[in-house]
Design goal:
The complex is a heterodimer. By secondary structure, chain A is an all-alpha fold. Chain A has 13 helices and one strand; from the N terminus they run βααααααααααααα. The relative contact order of chain A is 0.10. Chain B has two helices and three strands, in the order E-E-H-E-H. By secondary structure, chain B is mostly helical. In chain B, a hairpin with a 3-residue loop joins strand 1 and strand 2. Classes of the chains: A mainly alpha, B mainly alpha. Chains A and B meet through strand 1, helix 1, helix 2 and helix 3 of A and helix 1, strand 3 and helix 2 of B. Strand 1 of chain A pairs antiparallel with strand 3 of chain B.
Chain lengths: 317, 122
């Protein structure tokens, strides 16, 4: 078994050296392309000069092209080596948000807005299946299901049960703290990634935070939809935790957050483009925005979306 | 070399045995040779980027690509230097031909002037 070693710092030094070599080869090729034998040079010598200048120029351009992908390749390896050198950061970026969601799920019994929304959605869906209509101006009774869910949410929020109030509050604070630390790790990773532009560093971090919030809401809604507002308890916690972990796992596998962040970065960078287009790219749905990113992101985003639907189906949302 | 002590010789016309004045500028040819030598010097001095503290099969391939690029530059430098030497030689030959032509033309002009003077005396 051979040993693999990578020194990111030494590799970083090589990048400008490679770029300088490419510039030298390209510059010499351009200079040679403009060389021709002046008048007075014997025909055979003039022909030889033209032939050598042409062939060497072509060889130099080819050699430069062969190196063209090297700086980006080295950047990717530097990034990978940094991750390998700091496994705690990789583990933390995955684990901390999940732990944060888990801690906050202890407060699922006192319905949060997202829990109440999930419960209301479940009630409305049940009403629709029972033949009720929710069109405006209908009979008074058509809103019963919604009112019932709202009342249940208010009651549950006002009267948390089954968990000491102090513990619930502490779990909530701890959850927020873990989530913030997770965001900090993500921001630090993005900030030190040499492969990202400044815009990408900012947008990837922002989108990651937004996606984490979305996953949190998703987790709460999943818990409510599964078990209702009055008896969430451990089952609700597991459901919320499962939804959050499912999102984290999907995002770590498919890098949907990064893709959306890059799409937003592209839009931000396209200052000269139409403002409407940029807004469309930023504000569009995640899969739409991801489609704008090169490197086959559309299929990846599609797969992530499909996988996310399956995962949420499993947990009952 | 230029003969600054003598009167300038017209390059118009022909010289028996030598024909018309050899076309071209030796200094322009030497300038192109110098340009080629400068390019060759840059290529010959192209440093191979060092990718230190990296060992893996891919590292070997990357170092191979860098060596190949520097090798292309080195071989190109050799060929270009050969061309520059050929141009220098051509410039020297052209300068010698032009000097011989001017010398022959001057002798021819002097012989004509002498013949004209002797004809007028008679």
């Amino acid at each position: 078994m051979s040993a693999y070693t990578v020194d990111p710092a030494a590799m970083r030094v090589a990048i400008p050296a490679v770029q300088a070599l490419m510039a030298l080869l390209d510059g010499a090729a351009s200079d040679l392309a403009g060389v021709s034998a002046p008048a007075g040079v014997p025909g055979p010598v003039a022909a030889r000069v033209a032939q050598v200048a042409g062939s060497v120029s072509a060889d130099l351009r080819r050699a430069s092209r062969d190196l063209a992908s090297l700086p980006d390749d080295l950047l990717r390896r530097i990034s990978a080596a940094q991750v390998a050198n700091a496994p705690w950061a990789t583990a933390a970026s995955f684990g901390l948000p999940a732990l944060g969601f888990y801690a906050r799920s202890f407060t699922a019994q006192s319905l949060s807005r997202s829990l109440a929304a999930g419960l209301a959605a479940r009630e409305v869906a049940a009403g629709l299946r029972a033949g009720q209509s929710y069109g405006g101006g209908g009979p008074r009774g058509t809103w019963n299901a919604f009112r019932a869910s709202s009342a249940a949410a208010r009651a549950a929020t006002a009267n948390p049960r089954g968990l000491p109030p102090g513990l619930g509050r502490a779990a909530s604070v701890a959850g927020r703290g873990l989530t913030f630390v997770g965001w900090g790790v993500t921001a630090a990773q993005n900030a030190t990634n040499p492969h990202l532009s400044t815009t990408q560093k900012v947008t990837r971090t922002a989108v990651s935070i937004g996606a984490g919030t979305g996953a949190s809401v998703l987790g709460g809604a999943a818990a409510a939809a599964m078990v209702g507002g009055t008896a969430a308890g451990p089952v609700g916690a597991v459901a919320a935790f499962g939804a959050a972990v499912a999102w984290n796992a999907l995002d770590n596998k498919f890098h949907v957050t990064d893709k959306v962040g890059d799409a937003a970065a592209d839009a931000v960078d396209a200052v000269g483009g139409a403002a409407g287009d940029a807004g469309k790219a930023v504000g569009g749905a995640a899969s739409d925005a991801a489609n704008e990113v090169a490197d086959g992101v559309s299929s990846v985003a599609g797969g992530a979306k499909s996988a996310a639907k399956k995962a949420l189906g499993v947990i009952g949302l | 070399m230029w003969d600054f002590g003598a009167a300038p010789v017209s390059t118009a016309g022909t010289v028996p045995g030598l024909g018309s004045f050899p076309d071209g500028d030796p200094e322009a040819i030497r300038a192109v040779a110098d340009q080629l030598r400068r390019i060759a010097g840059l290529l010959a001095g192209a440093p191979k980027p060092a990718v230190a503290s990296w060992s893996s099969p891919e590292a070997t391939r990357v170092r191979g690509r860098l060596s190949a690029a520097v090798g292309v530059a080195g071989r190109g430098a050799d060929e270009i230097r050969g061309c520059a030497a050929a141009l220098d030689h051509a410039a020297d030959e052209l300068a010698a031909d032009q000097r011989d032509w001017r010398l022959a033309k001057r002798r021819l002009d002097e012989a004509r002037r002498l013949a004209e003077t002797q004809g007028a005396d008679r």
